[in-house]
User: Which sequence fits this backbone?
C-alpha cells in the first residue's frame, strides 16, 4: 500500500491513514483494497460519475456501498443479464467497462445511482469475448485442430481486450 495518497477531487496530498480516518474509519479504503488491481486503476475515475450534481463530494457511506457492490459483482467471475445466458467475466472486462463509461460521461444522466449501466456495458464485452471463443472453438472442432488447454491464451480475446491490455498492462496473480 502506498505511503501517501492524493484526493482525486481536489489533489490534496496526505498520508493514506488520513484518508482512511476521513473515510469513516477506513471502511472505504478496505472496500477499495478488495477490488482487483485492474479494477482499482479505473475505479476512482468511475466513482466520480456518482458525485452529486451540486459538485459536493460523494458521501463516504455511499462510496463504500458502491465499492462493495462492485467488488461483489467482480468477484463472481461471471455476469448475467435478464433473459440472456451468463457470461464469464474477468476484472479486465470490468475495467474496460468503467473506461468506456468515462468516455461516455458527457452523454450519461449523472449522477449515476447504481452499477446497472456498467453491468450492461460489461455484459456486451463479456458476450463478445465468449462469442469469439465459441466461434474459434467451433471452427477448430470442424478443422479437427481443437485441443484442450488450461492455460489462458490471447486466441480468445477480442481486439478491444488486446488493446486494453496493451494500454493498461496485464497483471496475473499466481494462484
Assistant:
Amino acid at each position: 500500500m502506498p505511503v501517501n495518497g492524493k484526493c482525486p477531487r481536489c489533489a490534496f496530498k496526505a498520508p493514506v491513514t488520513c484518508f482512511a480516518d476521513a473515510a469513516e474509519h477506513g471502511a472505504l479504503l478496505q472496500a477499495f483494497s478488495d477490488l482487483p488491481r485492474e479494477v482499482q486503476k479505473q475505479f476512482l475515475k468511475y466513482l466520480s460519475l456518482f458525485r452529486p450534481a451540486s459538485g459536493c463530494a460523494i458521501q463516504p457511506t455511499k462510496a463504500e456501498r458502491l465499492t462493495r457492490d462492485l467488488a461483489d459483482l467482480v468477484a463472481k467471475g461471471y455476469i448475467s443479464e435478464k433473459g440472456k445466458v451468463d457470461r464469464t467475466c474477468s476484472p479486465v472486462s470490468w475495467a474496460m467497462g468503467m473506461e468506456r463509461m468515462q468516455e461516455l460521461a458527457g452523454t450519461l444522466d449523472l449522477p449515476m445511482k447504481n452499477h446497472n449501466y456498467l453491468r450492461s456495458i460489461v455484459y456486451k464485452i463479456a458476450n463478445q469475448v465468449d462469442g469469439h471463443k465459441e466461434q474459434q472453438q467451433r471452427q477448430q472442432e470442424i478443422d479437427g485442430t481443437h485441443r484442450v488447454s488450461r492455460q489462458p491464451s490471447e486466441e480468445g480475446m477480442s481486439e478491444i481486450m488486446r488493446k486494453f491490455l496493451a494500454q493498461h498492462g496485464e497483471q496475473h496473480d499466481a494462484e
